Protein backbone atom coordinates (compact mmCIF):
# COMPACT_ATOMS: atom_id res chain seq x y z
CA UNK A 1 0.00 0.00 0.00
CA UNK A 2 1.18 3.55 -0.75
CA UNK A 3 2.35 5.66 2.16
CA UNK A 4 0.45 8.92 1.63
CA UNK A 5 2.88 10.70 3.98
CA UNK A 6 5.59 10.18 1.38
CA UNK A 7 3.85 10.46 -1.95
CA UNK A 8 0.47 11.26 -3.44
CA UNK A 9 -1.39 8.81 -5.62
CA UNK A 10 -2.69 11.65 -7.83
CA UNK A 11 -1.09 14.92 -8.87
CA UNK A 12 -3.41 17.35 -10.62
CA UNK A 13 -1.84 19.92 -12.90
CA UNK A 14 -4.02 22.79 -14.09
CA UNK A 15 -2.17 23.16 -17.39
CA UNK A 16 -4.01 26.37 -18.33
CA UNK A 17 -7.00 28.48 -17.41
CA UNK A 18 -7.93 28.81 -21.07
CA UNK A 19 -11.14 27.09 -22.19
CA UNK A 20 -13.76 27.62 -24.87
CA UNK A 21 -16.60 26.66 -22.52
CA UNK A 22 -17.94 28.84 -19.75
CA UNK A 23 -19.36 26.40 -17.22
CA UNK A 24 -21.56 27.89 -14.53
CA UNK A 25 -19.71 26.17 -11.68
CA UNK A 26 -16.13 26.39 -13.04
CA UNK A 27 -13.62 26.11 -10.18
CA UNK A 28 -10.88 27.59 -12.37
CA UNK A 29 -13.01 30.53 -13.55
CA UNK A 30 -11.69 29.59 -16.98
CA UNK A 31 -11.29 32.25 -19.62
CA UNK A 32 -10.79 32.23 -23.37
CA UNK A 33 -7.07 33.06 -23.43
CA UNK A 34 -4.18 31.80 -21.29
CA UNK A 35 -3.03 34.08 -18.47
CA UNK A 36 0.39 35.71 -18.86
CA UNK A 37 1.86 34.02 -15.78
CA UNK A 38 1.03 30.48 -16.99
CA UNK A 39 3.94 28.02 -16.59
CA UNK A 40 6.24 28.09 -19.63
CA UNK A 41 7.13 24.89 -21.49
CA UNK A 42 10.44 24.64 -19.64
CA UNK A 43 8.70 25.12 -16.31
CA UNK A 44 6.12 22.46 -17.19
CA UNK A 45 8.93 20.05 -18.11
CA UNK A 46 10.57 20.96 -14.80
CA UNK A 47 7.36 19.92 -13.04
CA UNK A 48 7.62 16.51 -14.72
CA UNK A 49 11.22 16.18 -13.50
CA UNK A 50 10.06 17.08 -10.00
CA UNK A 51 7.41 14.35 -10.10
CA UNK A 52 10.06 11.73 -10.88
CA UNK A 53 11.71 12.58 -7.56
CA UNK A 54 8.77 10.87 -5.82
CA UNK A 55 10.35 7.72 -7.26
CA UNK A 56 8.63 4.73 -8.85
CA UNK A 57 5.82 3.80 -8.88
CA UNK A 58 5.11 7.42 -9.81
CA UNK A 59 1.84 9.11 -8.91
CA UNK A 60 -0.67 9.44 -11.75
CA UNK A 61 -0.46 12.89 -13.32
CA UNK A 62 -3.92 14.18 -14.20
CA UNK A 63 -3.74 17.11 -16.59
CA UNK A 64 -6.68 19.39 -16.11
CA UNK A 65 -7.62 23.02 -16.74
CA UNK A 66 -9.38 25.12 -18.07
CA UNK A 67 -9.09 22.89 -21.07
CA UNK A 68 -5.62 21.28 -21.29
CA UNK A 69 -6.12 20.94 -25.06
CA UNK A 70 -5.85 24.74 -25.27
CA UNK A 71 -2.17 24.47 -24.32
CA UNK A 72 -0.06 24.62 -27.47
CA UNK A 73 2.83 22.58 -26.04
CA UNK A 74 0.56 19.95 -24.46
CA UNK A 75 1.90 17.00 -26.43
CA UNK A 76 5.50 18.05 -25.85
CA UNK A 77 4.88 17.91 -22.08
CA UNK A 78 2.84 14.71 -22.32
CA UNK A 79 5.55 13.07 -24.44
CA UNK A 80 8.21 14.05 -21.92
CA UNK A 81 6.15 12.59 -19.04
CA UNK A 82 5.34 9.41 -21.00
CA UNK A 83 9.07 8.88 -21.74
CA UNK A 84 9.65 8.94 -18.01
CA UNK A 85 6.90 6.35 -17.43
CA UNK A 86 4.65 8.67 -15.48
CA UNK A 87 1.08 7.35 -15.75
CA UNK A 88 -1.08 9.99 -17.39
CA UNK A 89 -4.68 11.06 -17.32
CA UNK A 90 -6.40 14.04 -18.86
CA UNK A 91 -9.60 15.96 -18.21
CA UNK A 92 -10.35 17.82 -21.45
CA UNK A 93 -13.38 19.96 -22.18
CA UNK A 94 -15.79 18.68 -24.83
CA UNK A 95 -15.21 21.11 -27.69
CA UNK A 96 -14.12 20.68 -31.31
CA UNK A 97 -10.54 20.33 -30.03
CA UNK A 98 -11.41 16.88 -28.68
CA UNK A 99 -11.70 15.36 -32.16
CA UNK A 100 -10.71 11.97 -33.63
CA UNK A 101 -7.19 13.17 -34.35
CA UNK A 102 -6.66 14.32 -30.75
CA UNK A 103 -8.06 11.08 -29.35
CA UNK A 104 -5.70 9.03 -31.53
CA UNK A 105 -2.78 11.19 -30.50
CA UNK A 106 -3.59 10.76 -26.82
CA UNK A 107 -3.56 6.97 -27.30
CA UNK A 108 -0.28 7.22 -29.20
CA UNK A 109 1.23 9.20 -26.27
CA UNK A 110 0.08 6.57 -23.77
CA UNK A 111 -2.58 8.65 -22.01
CA UNK A 112 -4.78 5.95 -20.52
CA UNK A 113 -7.20 7.75 -18.26
CA UNK A 114 -9.64 10.34 -19.48
CA UNK A 115 -12.40 12.12 -17.60
CA UNK A 116 -15.30 13.81 -19.27
CA UNK A 117 -17.92 15.96 -17.57
CA UNK A 118 -21.57 15.07 -17.88
CA UNK A 119 -23.70 17.20 -15.60
CA UNK A 120 -27.16 16.13 -16.64
CA UNK A 121 -29.03 13.07 -17.82
CA UNK A 122 -30.72 15.16 -20.48
CA UNK A 123 -29.73 18.03 -22.75
CA UNK A 124 -31.47 20.81 -20.83
CA UNK A 125 -29.71 20.21 -17.53
CA UNK A 126 -26.24 19.59 -18.94
CA UNK A 127 -26.27 22.38 -21.52
CA UNK A 128 -27.42 24.99 -18.98
CA UNK A 129 -24.59 24.06 -16.59
CA UNK A 130 -21.98 23.88 -19.38
CA UNK A 131 -23.17 27.12 -20.93
CA UNK A 132 -23.29 25.75 -24.52
CA UNK A 133 -26.35 24.47 -26.37
CA UNK A 134 -25.75 21.11 -28.03
CA UNK A 135 -22.91 20.15 -25.66
CA UNK A 136 -24.90 17.24 -24.17
CA UNK A 137 -25.17 15.45 -27.52
CA UNK A 138 -21.56 16.23 -28.34
CA UNK A 139 -20.49 14.78 -24.97
CA UNK A 140 -22.40 11.53 -25.56
CA UNK A 141 -20.75 11.15 -28.98
CA UNK A 142 -17.30 11.82 -27.50
CA UNK A 143 -17.90 9.24 -24.75
CA UNK A 144 -18.85 6.60 -27.33
CA UNK A 145 -15.68 7.26 -29.31
CA UNK A 146 -13.47 7.13 -26.22
CA UNK A 147 -14.97 3.83 -25.06
CA UNK A 148 -14.43 2.41 -28.54
CA UNK A 149 -10.75 3.43 -28.39
CA UNK A 150 -10.45 1.61 -25.05
CA UNK A 151 -9.51 4.58 -22.90
CA UNK A 152 -10.23 4.10 -19.19
CA UNK A 153 -13.13 6.53 -19.24
CA UNK A 154 -14.43 8.28 -16.17
CA UNK A 155 -17.51 10.48 -16.18
CA UNK A 156 -17.47 13.48 -13.83
CA UNK A 157 -20.72 14.97 -12.58
CA UNK A 158 -21.46 17.92 -10.35
CA UNK A 159 -24.14 17.14 -7.75
CA UNK A 160 -25.98 20.35 -6.89
CA UNK A 161 -29.57 21.63 -6.73
CA UNK A 162 -29.72 22.04 -10.51
CA UNK A 163 -28.48 18.52 -11.35
CA UNK A 164 -29.46 16.27 -8.45
CA UNK A 165 -32.71 14.98 -9.95
CA UNK A 166 -30.85 13.88 -13.09
CA UNK A 167 -28.44 11.57 -11.24
CA UNK A 168 -30.36 8.32 -11.94
CA UNK A 169 -30.56 9.19 -15.65
CA UNK A 170 -26.80 9.70 -15.73
CA UNK A 171 -26.35 6.22 -14.23
CA UNK A 172 -28.52 4.84 -17.04
CA UNK A 173 -26.30 6.57 -19.62
CA UNK A 174 -23.18 5.12 -17.97
CA UNK A 175 -24.64 1.62 -18.13
CA UNK A 176 -25.73 2.07 -21.75
CA UNK A 177 -22.27 3.29 -22.74
CA UNK A 178 -20.45 0.65 -20.71
CA UNK A 179 -18.63 3.17 -18.51
CA UNK A 180 -17.94 1.96 -15.01
CA UNK A 181 -16.24 4.88 -13.21
CA UNK A 182 -18.34 7.77 -12.02
CA UNK A 183 -16.79 10.65 -10.10
CA UNK A 184 -19.40 12.76 -8.38
CA UNK A 185 -18.28 16.24 -7.36
CA UNK A 186 -19.99 18.12 -4.56
CA UNK A 187 -20.07 21.86 -4.57
CA UNK A 188 -17.45 24.08 -3.01
CA UNK A 189 -18.20 27.75 -3.21
CA UNK A 190 -15.03 28.75 -5.06
CA UNK A 191 -14.57 30.19 -8.55
CA UNK A 192 -17.90 30.34 -10.40
CA UNK A 193 -19.22 27.66 -8.00
CA UNK A 194 -20.84 30.48 -6.03
CA UNK A 195 -23.37 30.81 -8.90
CA UNK A 196 -24.75 27.27 -8.38
CA UNK A 197 -27.17 26.01 -5.67
CA UNK A 198 -25.69 23.75 -3.01
CA UNK A 199 -27.50 20.84 -1.35
CA UNK A 200 -28.38 20.91 2.35
CA UNK A 201 -26.46 18.58 4.73
CA UNK A 202 -29.56 16.33 4.89
CA UNK A 203 -29.61 16.14 1.09
CA UNK A 204 -25.89 15.33 1.07
CA UNK A 205 -26.68 12.34 3.29
CA UNK A 206 -29.53 11.26 0.97
CA UNK A 207 -27.44 11.61 -2.19
CA UNK A 208 -24.44 9.78 -0.76
CA UNK A 209 -26.65 6.89 0.35
CA UNK A 210 -28.08 6.85 -3.16
CA UNK A 211 -24.52 6.68 -4.54
CA UNK A 212 -23.90 3.66 -2.35
CA UNK A 213 -26.86 1.97 -4.09
CA UNK A 214 -25.36 2.92 -7.47
CA UNK A 215 -22.29 0.85 -6.55
CA UNK A 216 -24.61 -2.20 -6.61
CA UNK A 217 -24.93 -1.73 -10.38
CA UNK A 218 -21.28 -2.45 -11.18
CA UNK A 219 -20.28 1.22 -11.19
CA UNK A 220 -17.31 2.43 -9.18
CA UNK A 221 -18.51 5.62 -7.57
CA UNK A 222 -15.89 8.09 -6.38
CA UNK A 223 -16.87 11.22 -4.53
CA UNK A 224 -15.01 14.52 -4.58
CA UNK A 225 -15.48 16.85 -1.60
CA UNK A 226 -17.89 14.44 0.11
CA UNK A 227 -15.49 12.07 1.88
CA UNK A 228 -18.23 11.18 4.38
CA UNK A 229 -19.50 8.84 1.64
CA UNK A 230 -16.91 6.50 3.19
CA UNK A 231 -18.51 6.76 6.65
CA UNK A 232 -21.85 5.89 5.05
CA UNK A 233 -20.35 3.01 3.06
CA UNK A 234 -18.59 1.65 6.15
CA UNK A 235 -21.77 1.73 8.23
CA UNK A 236 -23.79 0.10 5.54
CA UNK A 237 -21.36 -2.56 4.41
CA UNK A 238 -21.23 -3.88 7.96
CA UNK A 239 -24.98 -4.60 7.96
CA UNK A 240 -25.41 -8.05 6.45
CA UNK A 241 -29.11 -7.68 5.61
CA UNK A 242 -28.50 -4.36 3.88
CA UNK A 243 -25.46 -5.74 2.07
CA UNK A 244 -27.43 -8.55 0.49
CA UNK A 245 -30.64 -6.72 -0.35
CA UNK A 246 -31.68 -3.25 -1.44
CA UNK A 247 -34.57 -2.54 0.92
CA UNK A 248 -35.43 1.15 0.55
CA UNK A 249 -37.84 1.38 3.50
CA UNK A 250 -35.41 -0.37 5.85
CA UNK A 251 -32.55 1.94 4.88
CA UNK A 252 -34.66 5.06 5.19
CA UNK A 253 -35.76 4.06 8.69
CA UNK A 254 -32.35 2.95 9.86
CA UNK A 255 -30.42 5.99 8.62
CA UNK A 256 -33.26 8.55 8.83
CA UNK A 257 -33.05 9.37 5.16
CA UNK A 258 -35.45 11.69 3.40
CA UNK A 259 -37.58 11.94 0.29
CA UNK A 260 -34.65 12.77 -1.96
CA UNK A 261 -33.03 9.39 -1.27
CA UNK A 262 -36.33 7.61 -1.89
CA UNK A 263 -37.02 9.46 -5.14
CA UNK A 264 -33.53 8.91 -6.53
CA UNK A 265 -33.41 5.21 -5.69
CA UNK A 266 -36.92 4.53 -6.99
CA UNK A 267 -36.08 6.33 -10.23
CA UNK A 268 -32.93 4.24 -10.54
CA UNK A 269 -34.79 0.98 -9.98
CA UNK A 270 -37.39 2.13 -12.53
CA UNK A 271 -34.64 2.65 -15.10
CA UNK A 272 -32.39 -0.34 -14.40
CA UNK A 273 -34.44 -2.78 -12.31
CA UNK A 274 -33.28 -4.14 -8.94
CA UNK A 275 -29.50 -4.55 -8.71
CA UNK A 276 -28.11 -8.05 -9.11
CA UNK A 277 -24.75 -7.41 -7.41
CA UNK A 278 -23.67 -6.62 -3.86
CA UNK A 279 -22.44 -3.04 -3.34
CA UNK A 280 -18.79 -2.35 -4.09
CA UNK A 281 -18.01 1.05 -2.62
CA UNK A 282 -14.68 2.68 -3.43
CA UNK A 283 -13.40 4.00 -0.09
CA UNK A 284 -9.74 5.04 -0.12
CA UNK A 285 -8.60 7.24 2.78
CA UNK A 286 -7.28 10.05 0.56
CA UNK A 287 -8.35 13.68 0.89
CA UNK A 288 -7.25 17.16 -0.22
CA UNK A 289 -3.55 17.17 0.71
CA UNK A 290 -3.39 13.46 1.64
CA UNK A 291 -2.72 11.33 -1.40
CA UNK A 292 -3.74 14.27 -3.59
CA UNK A 293 -1.92 17.47 -4.49
CA UNK A 294 -2.68 20.20 -7.02
CA UNK A 295 -0.41 22.46 -9.05
CA UNK A 296 -2.14 25.46 -10.56
CA UNK A 297 -1.63 27.13 -13.96
CA UNK A 298 1.09 29.40 -12.50
CA UNK A 299 2.79 26.76 -10.38
CA UNK A 300 1.07 27.47 -7.07
CA UNK A 301 0.73 24.33 -4.96
CA UNK A 302 -2.59 23.64 -3.20
CA UNK A 303 -4.01 20.64 -1.29
CA UNK A 304 -6.58 20.37 -4.10
CA UNK A 305 -8.10 22.46 -6.85
CA UNK A 306 -11.02 23.34 -4.59
CA UNK A 307 -8.94 24.39 -1.57
CA UNK A 308 -7.18 27.67 -2.46
CA UNK A 309 -4.82 27.44 0.51
CA UNK A 310 -1.42 28.18 -1.05
CA UNK A 311 1.39 25.91 0.11
CA UNK A 312 4.17 27.15 -2.19
CA UNK A 313 5.04 27.50 -5.86
CA UNK A 314 7.00 25.08 -8.03
CA UNK A 315 8.97 28.03 -9.48
CA UNK A 316 10.78 28.30 -6.16
CA UNK A 317 9.70 25.29 -4.07
CA UNK A 318 10.25 21.59 -4.50
CA UNK A 319 6.91 19.78 -4.86
CA UNK A 320 8.24 16.66 -3.11
CA UNK A 321 9.51 18.69 -0.15
CA UNK A 322 6.21 20.62 0.13
CA UNK A 323 4.11 17.44 -0.10
CA UNK A 324 6.14 15.66 2.56
CA UNK A 325 7.01 18.44 4.98
CA UNK A 326 4.59 21.35 4.78
CA UNK A 327 3.30 21.68 8.39
CA UNK A 328 -0.36 22.06 7.33
CA UNK A 329 -0.15 19.02 5.05
CA UNK A 330 1.40 17.02 7.90
CA UNK A 331 -1.61 17.92 10.07
CA UNK A 332 -4.05 17.09 7.25
CA UNK A 333 -2.35 13.72 6.69
CA UNK A 334 -2.44 12.97 10.44
CA UNK A 335 -6.13 13.88 10.69
CA UNK A 336 -5.32 16.65 13.16
CA UNK A 337 -8.58 18.58 12.70
CA UNK A 338 -10.73 20.96 14.70
CA UNK A 339 -14.44 20.78 15.55
CA UNK A 340 -16.31 17.55 15.12
CA UNK A 341 -13.99 16.17 12.42
CA UNK A 342 -11.21 16.27 15.02
CA UNK A 343 -13.24 14.11 17.42
CA UNK A 344 -14.67 11.74 14.85
CA UNK A 345 -13.84 8.05 14.71
CA UNK A 346 -13.92 8.34 10.90
CA UNK A 347 -11.32 11.09 10.72
CA UNK A 348 -8.71 8.91 9.07
CA UNK A 349 -11.02 7.27 6.54
CA UNK A 350 -13.02 10.45 5.92
CA UNK A 351 -11.64 13.57 7.59
CA UNK A 352 -14.22 15.85 5.98
CA UNK A 353 -13.72 18.11 2.99
CA UNK A 354 -10.78 20.38 3.71
CA UNK A 355 -11.89 22.57 0.81
CA UNK A 356 -15.36 23.09 2.30
CA UNK A 357 -13.92 23.78 5.76
CA UNK A 358 -11.70 26.44 4.18
CA UNK A 359 -14.54 27.94 2.13
CA UNK A 360 -16.78 28.12 5.21
CA UNK A 361 -14.40 29.01 8.06
CA UNK A 362 -11.22 30.21 6.27
CA UNK A 363 -9.57 27.44 8.32
CA UNK A 364 -8.45 24.40 6.38
CA UNK A 365 -8.31 22.26 9.54
CA UNK A 366 -11.88 23.01 10.65
CA UNK A 367 -14.87 20.66 10.41
CA UNK A 368 -16.83 19.94 7.23
CA UNK A 369 -20.17 21.80 7.57
CA UNK A 370 -21.93 19.51 5.05
CA UNK A 371 -21.71 16.40 7.24
CA UNK A 372 -24.71 15.58 9.44
CA UNK A 373 -22.86 13.14 11.68
CA UNK A 374 -22.29 14.12 15.31
CA UNK A 375 -19.42 11.99 16.59
S1 LIG B 1 -17.64 14.49 11.30
FE1 LIG B 1 -15.99 14.95 9.82
S2 LIG B 1 -14.67 13.12 9.86
FE2 LIG B 1 -16.61 12.52 10.81
S3 LIG B 1 -17.80 11.64 9.15
FE3 LIG B 1 -18.35 13.83 9.27
S4 LIG B 1 -17.01 14.86 7.83
FE4 LIG B 1 -16.15 12.81 8.21
Oligomer: single chain
Distance between the termini: 28 Å
CATH class: Alpha Beta
Sum up the overall morphology in one term: globular
Ligand types: iron/sulfur cluster
Which parts are unreliable, with pLDDT below 50 for 5 consecutive residues or more? none
CATH topology: TIM Barrel
**Overall radius of gyration:** 20 Å
Helix percent reads: 25-40%
Specify the biggest β-sheet: 11 strands, mixed
Number of DSSP helices? Answer: 15
* CATH-defined superfamily: Aldolase class I
Number of domains: 1
Content-based structural category: alpha/beta
Please write the string of helix (H) and strand (E) elements. Answer: EHEHEHEHHEHEHEHHHHEEEEHHHH
CATH architecture: Alpha-Beta Barrel
Whole-number mean pLDDT:
94
State the total count of DSSP E strands.
11
Beta fraction: 5-15%
Amino acid sequence: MLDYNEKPILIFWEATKACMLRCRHCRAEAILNPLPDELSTDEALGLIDMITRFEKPYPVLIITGGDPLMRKDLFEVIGYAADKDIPLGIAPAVTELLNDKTMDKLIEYNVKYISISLDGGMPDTHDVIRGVKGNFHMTIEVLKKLVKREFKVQVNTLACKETVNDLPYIVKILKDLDIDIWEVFFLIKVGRGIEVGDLTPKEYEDVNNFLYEVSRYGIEVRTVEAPFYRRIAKWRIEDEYDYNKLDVKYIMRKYRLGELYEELVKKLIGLLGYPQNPPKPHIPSTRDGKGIIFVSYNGDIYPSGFAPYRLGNIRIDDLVEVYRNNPILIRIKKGDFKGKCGKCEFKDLCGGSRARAYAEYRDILHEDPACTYIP
